[in-house]
Amino acid sequence: MAAALGLGVLLGVLGLLGEPAGGNKVLHSLRYLFMSVSEPSPGVPQFMMLGFVDGIPFTRYDSERGRMEPLTQWMKDGVEPEYWDRNTQIAVQSQRVGAVNLETLRGRYNQSRGLHTIQWLSSCDLLSNGSVRGSFRVGYDGRDFISFDLGSRRFAAADAVAEITRRRWEDEGNEVERWTNYLEHECPKWLRKYVGYGEKELERKEPPDVHVSWKEEHGMLILSCHAYGFYPNTITVNWMKGDEIWDQEMEWSGIVPNSDGTFHTWAKIEVLPEERDLYRCKVEHPGMLEPGIFTWEPTTSGGNLTVVVAVCVIAAILVIALIGIILWRLQSGRKDRNGYSMAAGEFQWWIQLWIPSADPRMDPGVNPGV
């Protein structure tokens, strides 16, 4: 269960769990996820990085491979070969900074040696109104540490130890200026370049394949509306009772990537068996000419469809399973520094991106020390 939670939170970090209603639409997004680990082991590198454009993994680096690599053909074809050499050097330097930061925070929290992690997330979004949204967040041992939001242009510390870092970055350094410049200018600039490289792939629209299934459980009927094989990841799935949206009791999976670059999602609702014919699933997606209304299929149970969907996302789960495993190790029987056993809902997985370099040919830069 812990590993599944880790996957869900990560998908939220990647912007795959949807957007608040009424907000400006996200046209394109760039995310970098980074993590340093104090106790590497086979299959668990000391340092790892994944880059995502519109939720699609497009670059990666880890300390075992030792080189930045493309994950899409359009990225491999789009940039010059020197790009990979330069960004490998930056990743190696970030790996060193991550190791130093781990030791620094372990000392500040007066912790013993053992498994510790430091995570960063950097993200920027191009919005439909022409504006840019961006943020930078740091976490330690799966908990919030410090964050920066482009809108407020301020760092927010999660505790007294993080306050030391906040004062250092704001009073002794120019981190506010550097992160503002990166999130407002450099990150969107590189995002536009990447979208240009992969325009044919990223601008395509593939409508979802929608199926409604059911299963009986404890005298109730659970209706499931599955939409899969769609792109982009912007989608709305609602259960309706009659003509009214009925989402009070709805359970939603979020939006999950498939191994072929498309996405899938599902929404479930528990109903009285005698009311089954009153419920319909409404799906809206840019690849559909108009919203689709789907009804339950009496001959279809939920079991086989669940297997199909699970097979579709195995490769995507493997991409980030490593982080889920580490989250599980951190959660299993572990108490925090104050002796408090942390609940699953309190874990936030924020992962690092480098501060930008002054070299305009480079996308990621070097992380600041805490």
TrEMBL record:
<dbReference type="InterPro" id="IPR050208">
    <property type="entry name" value="MHC_class-I_related"/>
</dbReference>
<dbReference type="InterPro" id="IPR011162">
    <property type="entry name" value="MHC_I/II-like_Ag-recog"/>
</dbReference>
<feature type="transmembrane region" description="Helical">
    <location>
        <begin position="305"/>
        <end position="328"/>
    </location>
</feature>
<keyword id="KW-0490">MHC I</keyword>
<keyword id="KW-1133">Transmembrane helix</keyword>
<dbReference type="GO" id="GO:0005615">
    <property type="term" value="C:extracellular space"/>
</dbReference>
<keyword id="KW-0325">Glycoprotein</keyword>
<dbReference type="InterPro" id="IPR011161">
    <property type="entry name" value="MHC_I-like_Ag-recog"/>
</dbReference>
<keyword id="KW-0812">Transmembrane</keyword>
<dbReference type="InterPro" id="IPR007110">
    <property type="entry name" value="Ig-like_dom"/>
</dbReference>
<keyword id="KW-1015">Disulfide bond</keyword>
<dbReference type="GO" id="GO:0009897">
    <property type="term" value="C:external side of plasma membrane"/>
</dbReference>
<dbReference type="GO" id="GO:0002474">
    <property type="term" value="P:antigen processing and presentation of peptide antigen via MHC class I"/>
</dbReference>
<dbReference type="InterPro" id="IPR036179">
    <property type="entry name" value="Ig-like_dom_sf"/>
</dbReference>
<comment type="similarity">
    <text>Belongs to the MHC class I family.</text>
</comment>
<feature type="signal peptide">
    <location>
        <begin position="1"/>
        <end position="23"/>
    </location>
</feature>
<dbReference type="InterPro" id="IPR003006">
    <property type="entry name" value="Ig/MHC_CS"/>
</dbReference>
<feature type="domain" description="Ig-like">
    <location>
        <begin position="208"/>
        <end position="295"/>
    </location>
</feature>
<protein>
    <recommendedName>
        <fullName>Ig-like domain-containing protein</fullName>
    </recommendedName>
</protein>
<dbReference type="GO" id="GO:0042612">
    <property type="term" value="C:MHC class I protein complex"/>
</dbReference>
<dbReference type="Pfam" id="PF00129">
    <property type="entry name" value="MHC_I"/>
</dbReference>
<keyword id="KW-0732">Signal</keyword>
<dbReference type="InterPro" id="IPR003597">
    <property type="entry name" value="Ig_C1-set"/>
</dbReference>
<dbReference type="InterPro" id="IPR013783">
    <property type="entry name" value="Ig-like_fold"/>
</dbReference>
<dbReference type="Pfam" id="PF07654">
    <property type="entry name" value="C1-set"/>
</dbReference>
<keyword id="KW-0472">Membrane</keyword>
<keyword id="KW-0391">Immunity</keyword>
<dbReference type="GO" id="GO:0006955">
    <property type="term" value="P:immune response"/>
</dbReference>
<dbReference type="InterPro" id="IPR001039">
    <property type="entry name" value="MHC_I_a_a1/a2"/>
</dbReference>
<dbReference type="InterPro" id="IPR037055">
    <property type="entry name" value="MHC_I-like_Ag-recog_sf"/>
</dbReference>
